[in-house]
Amino acid sequence: MFQQKEHLKSHLQAHHANRQVFHCQECGKQYSTQLGYRRHLLAAHTPAPSATLSGELRCQEGAPTLLEQIGSHGDRPPPPTEGAAVRERKYSCERCDRRFYTRKDVRRHAVVHTGRRDFLCPRCAQRFGRRDHLTRHLKKSHAQEAALAAPAATPAPAAPGPVKEELSPVPCSMGTSKEPAENFPMDMYGGYPLQGMSSPGMGHHHQSLMQGSLSTAMGRQMTGQSPHHHLPQTQQQQQPYMTRYQHGSTSYPRTDMESFLMDLQSGLPPHMTAASSSTSSSPQREVLSEAQGGPGAGDPQLLSRSPALSSAELSCAANMDLGPLLGFLPFGLPPYSAHMSMGGLVMGYPSTSTSTVPPSSSSPLPSQGPGGLTFLQPPQPHAPQGPGAHNQLPQGFSHLGMSTSPSLPRYYQAFQQ
DNA sequence: GCTTGCCTCGAGTCTTGA
DNA sequence: TCAAGACTCGAGGCAAGC
């Protein structure tokens, strides 16, 4: 909530489709916010007033400041130093022109093109392309929760469990070189079961179609669980993310995303259906497929087959936005809105087996709605069920389920009002 | 050579106060 | 209305350990 009307106004301005784009005349960079633009000016184009770090240390190549040198020459090898061997960026990415010092860096960089985000936060379903990013996220965003949950001694779901499947064997060779990554191998859709219906939300693998920042932004919005998880959520959820990330190297192919969202509204894209129904290249997916309707449906043990897939991950991964599907659209928004399609009302797709999991199971899931759908329910009195009860729920769910939490999605707050 | 994780920087967003 | 600070994430560099 914004405490002042002006704050809301300025916030909304950031999402306005026709909002101003700040264009740096000197280097051509664009910024969506004045703040970003001004920061860029300060960092890159402001002559130093004094003999500070950003002042006297002039770039030998003409850049005004050291900071600009860092920014503008980041892709160039460092200048040779006296007596030191010249380091070369010998390894180049096949999909872009970036060069790196080591092959490892190239591989890691490939995530930028594949958009793969294989590391799922078990607490908020946010996904990351790198393990250390997840680690950092857990430390910064969930350290407090972890501390609170620590005495409960149920650390399993909280472990930074990668939902990582085998990395694509063609990280840099798929598609045409030097082109944006749009042609992903089929397997890339398959990190999670698609369950016949899906949304970009809650970390399902359509995010793999997304690149860079938008992917992350989508993740934030779609999860309904921002990394600023004490901050309002639907502010982000309602944002026209396409316009938020309309420039920059990690900007998003708008048409791709919109068509994807339209696909979601009209039904499952054929390739998604195929991906969910016919391909089971990963053990996890196979397990899930079985658990959700396959031959092994109803087998409570299925969910425990994959050590890399906790129940929390299951619930998180399959969570999806129900708004467009159920016609529940808070705030009177139209049936489909790119802004709203990432709404905060999320539901999971537990396998049928989850209903048979006894309460004492180590892999509890949110309460189920009819038809086997699991709802992350609108606020209900959340009575603790004894010590450690909090940990009986997947962290992401329990977190969302806290009706009094500041991070409560606005949908829920709307319910409360 | 590979994996892992830390450090750092740039950028976007949110919040708060003048 | 504007500015500033805080927060978070993406990404590259790099060291340590195997």
UniProtKB/TrEMBL annotation:
GO terms for molecular function: DNA-binding transcription factor activity, RNA polymerase II-specific; zinc ion binding. Pfam families: zf-C2H2 (PF00096). It comes from the Eukaryota. Its main location: nucleus. SMART domains: ZnF_C2H2. PROSITE patterns: ZINC_FINGER_C2H2_1, ZINC_FINGER_C2H2_2. Residues 144-156, 273-282, 351-366 have a biased composition (Low complexity). Residues 68-87, 139-182, 219-254, 267-306, 351-408 are annotated as: Disordered. SUPFAM superfamilies: beta-beta-alpha zinc fingers. Keywords: Metal-binding, Nucleus, Repeat, Zinc, Zinc-finger. Residues 22-50, 91-118, 119-147 form the C2H2-type domain. It is found in: Nucleus. One of its GO terms (cellular component) is nucleus. Signal peptide: none annotated. This is C2H2-type domain-containing protein.
